[in-house]
TrEMBL record:
Sorted UniProt keywords: Metal-binding, Oxidoreductase, Zinc
Similarity annotation: Belongs to the zinc-containing alcohol dehydrogenase family.
GO molecular-function terms, A-Z: alcohol dehydrogenase (NAD+) activity; zinc ion binding
Needed cofactors: Zn(2+)
Cited InterPro entries: ADH-like_N, ADH_Zn_CS, ADH_Zn_typ-2, ER, GroES-like_sf, NAD(P)-bd_dom_sf
Documented EC number(s): 1.1.1.1
Name of protein: alcohol dehydrogenase
Short name of one Pfam family: ADH_N
Length: 327
């Protein structure tokens, strides 16, 4: 099989021929039908994730078909279409796992980071951490939902009943999340890189009531701000745009250093918090919601062997919506 492999940080992915792997006891052998390209993959390439184990096949937004199962997996899995998200395994017995917070498990393993992911023709995944994919969704439409959608959904849940919602960084997650927010009756204010008028036009087209530069204040103060861009300097800007008692939620796995800012921006019972990973319950709740609130992925496709080009496009912000690799 073909696999795109990261050997060391800073290097391009290498195309390798590998044997098709055999599933261990709780694993599925999955033929990859589509794999989303996520900004976390860029952090992996750049060496920003100290937990990563290299060499590694990236990719944690995987949709595929089960071809074989391990000894502890029921045969009925064979032939099913499944989704493989970022959370690939958790211990199940630590205090976090027992409290329903497996996303914080200190022993957790993550797809495309410590476990080989979906930038390949085939992959393995623990059946207990795979998600069912609605039959109505094509693989390329479903793939971005498995991280951009799920992490965005967890961030949206943490924002509570916010009526005026700011989205900083209008990429794959925001273009999905705005659809859910609008269906809930929320107003969305979109913030892009300074000068990104195309991104602002795209956000307005999707229903944002206002779109502008991340350096601007919105016309109305925000009840909550969700930050998807990995730029620490956005935190004081988002706090300044948020009402007293509001919250600012950082939804990325990595962010540049946060600059010093006056306490006045945080005062007034504003809340600053992060989103760490996801749980299987997030996945079930998200797919249940989109079963009656359809969310459409706007996708640009690349072939598996063009993964390096896809990552370059993502880094340069050339694509609106999501990027998906198809073997």
């Amino acid at each position: 099989m073909r696999a795109m492999v990261l050997q060391a940080p800073g290097e391009p992915l290498q195309l390798q021929e590998r044997p098709v792997p055999a599933p261990a006891a709780h694993q599925l052998l999955i033929k990859v039908l589509a794999c989303g390209v996520c900004r976390t993959d860029l952090h992996l390439l750049d060496g920003d994730l100290p937990q990563a184990v290299l060499p590694r096949v990236p990719g944690h937004e995987i949709v595929g078909q089960v071809l074989a199962v391990g000894s502890q997996v029921a045969p009925y899995w064979i032939g099913r279409r499944v989704g493989v998200p970022w959370l690939g395994w958790a211990c199940g017995h630590c205090a976090f796992c027992l409290a329903g917070r497996e996303n914080l498990c200190n022993q957790a393993l993550f797809t495309g980071c410590q476990i080989d992911g979906g930038y390949a023709d085939y992959t393995l995944a623990d059946a207990r951490f795979c998600l069912s994919i609605p039959a109505a969704l094509a693989p390329v439409e479903a793939a971005p939902l498995l991280c951009a959608g799920l992490i965005g959904y967890r961030a949206l849940r943490l924002a509570g009943a916010a009526q005026r919602l700011g989205l900083y960084g209008f990429g794959a997650a925001a273009h999905l999340l705005i659809q859910l927010a609008l269906a809930r009756g929320q107003q969305v204010y979109a913030f892009t890189r300074p000068g990104d008028t195309q991104g602002q036009d795209y956000a307005r087209k999707l229903g944002a009531v206002w779109a502008g530069s991340s350096e601007q204040l919105p016309p109305q103060p925000l009840d909550a701000a969700l930050i998807f861009a990995s730029v620490g300097a956005l935190i004081p800007l988002a706090l300044a745009a948020t009402i007293k008692g509001g919250c600012v939620i950082c939804a990325g796995i990595h962010m540049s250093d946060i600059p010093a800012f006056p306490y006045q921006l945080l005062w007034g019972e504003r809340i600053l918090r992060s989103v760490a990973n996801l749980t299987r319950e997030d996945g079930k709740a998200f797919f249940a919601e989109i079963s009656h609130t359809p969310v459409r992925s706007h996708v640009t496709r690349f072939a598996l062997i063009d993964a390096n080009s896809a990552l370059d496009y993502l880094r340069q912000g050339k694509v609106k919506g999501a990027i998906v690799l198809t073997p």
